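User: Earlier you gave me the apo prediction for this protein. Now I'd like the version with zinc ion bound, so I can compare the two side by side. Same sequence as before, with the ligand SMILES added.
Assistant: Got it. Here's the input I'm using:
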Amino acid sequence: MKKLIMTCIVVLLFMVINEVTVASNNNGIVDPYQPITYEIMTSNIKELEKEFPELIETEVIGQSADDRDIILVKLGKGDTLVHINGSFHARERITTNIILKNIEDYANGYVNNSKILGYDVKELLDEVTIFFVPMVNPDGVDYTILGKESIKSPLLREEFDKIVEHPQSTWFTPGLRWKSNIRGIDLNRQWDFGWDEESRFDIDVPADAHFKGFEPHSEAEVKAMEKLSISNPFLIYAAYHTQGLEIYWYKYQQGEDLEEVKDITRKISNLTFFRPVPALNNIPQNFRSFSGYADWTAVELKKPSFTMEFAYRQYSEADFDKIYEPAKALGLLFAEEALNIKGNYNVEVIMEGELIQLFKSYEDGLEFVEKYTTEDMDIQMIKNQEIIYQRIGKPYFDDIKLMINEKGTGDIMTEYNEEALRYKGKTFLPLERLFDNFDMELHYYKELKLMVAQNKDNIVVMSLNNGSIYLNHDKISLDNGIMRYDEKLYISTEAVEFIFDVELNSLED
Ligand SMILES: [Zn+2]
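And here is the structure of the complex with zinc ion:
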């Protein structure tokens, strides 16, 4: 009898718990009342993409240190672009919930032609596309939810044990309050604006929070975000965090730029009731802001860039509704503001035929081109349909470090540490020296522009005219498979991987 009663209680309890889960599920794809792991996020995104194929497109923009994909979700149909990201900081992972919920709400709003807090979703998303990166730091987020077991790489686990043991990191609450990436580096103190001066917490080794790294942009997550940011013409950037109910907006703008960013900040503050930092009408002379993503984007890419702080320290996913309230329409506000300021940015920077940045002036554009593009790429600047700058890409020499690994086993075959040629974003190695390494004998038929390389197992025929490569009986076509420069022949890393069945891994940085 006792056993039966117990069983009944267990069954009842189970039903109650189930009821609660169902009730909070909102009947949608995204359940924001739970910690969202990398796996839940990727499955949510897949479902959203399936549900709204006309409106949502996804892309992988890079991999984290522990080899998780950093995913970009593009929402909308317009060519005016806005960028919003979340979970730079592991313990602020609820910003991923906010973003996923935004995506679902906005997509539903578009399809149902409904308004969100007065914003006409369809009208806005026909003009604007929002590029969301819901989880910049997936390894860190998974650690705060799943613990150390979530670290896949044995090497990273070893490094991680050292970080946790290190006395400096105990200054903070370890464990689930982890803020850094899984290598103990704070991804929002890594950015190359004022990075040298960054010493707010006096931490000079990897730690659970606040360590800026040994050099700027050293982390894979930061590199992926940098590439995304410089290769798309975003007009507004926003990074979602959760330490206070604040808007960090001021990045040393002056004149018109200052008025522009103040105006948007005022509107954000009216929508969210968050406090602008510094106050709009009282910017202290000594106000400093540096080494964060918003600092770097605002100063280097010269657009309004905001750090939004959505919650106080003590909260859980159960408090989602309250935290979400100010964020509900914020993405739409950014979309509307991007349309408002668009006309001020009429200098287009075009790389290899693609629009990559917009600026207010020729000088701003030129500064960007000189700092963030390499000389092997074709660049144009256009203002009012007139070409105001043009550069034809040409090959350049670069010192590189490569490891050539056997495919499958990953065994190191050889390390390659010398000069290479860069052209159109590809890397080319001196052909003779490389083939020598693989014991291949080389013949060049000048009139035919054909290279033939041979050893006891393989014969390779390469055409200098069209880049085609024949390996025994297989053929591949690569644009720029081999090229001739300064009387010497070079072969692309892609072609090397194909011919010798190897993997080339960069040892740079
Ligand atoms: Zn943060």
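For your comparison, keep in mind: The chain has four domains: 36-140+221-343, 141-219, 347-391, 396-506.
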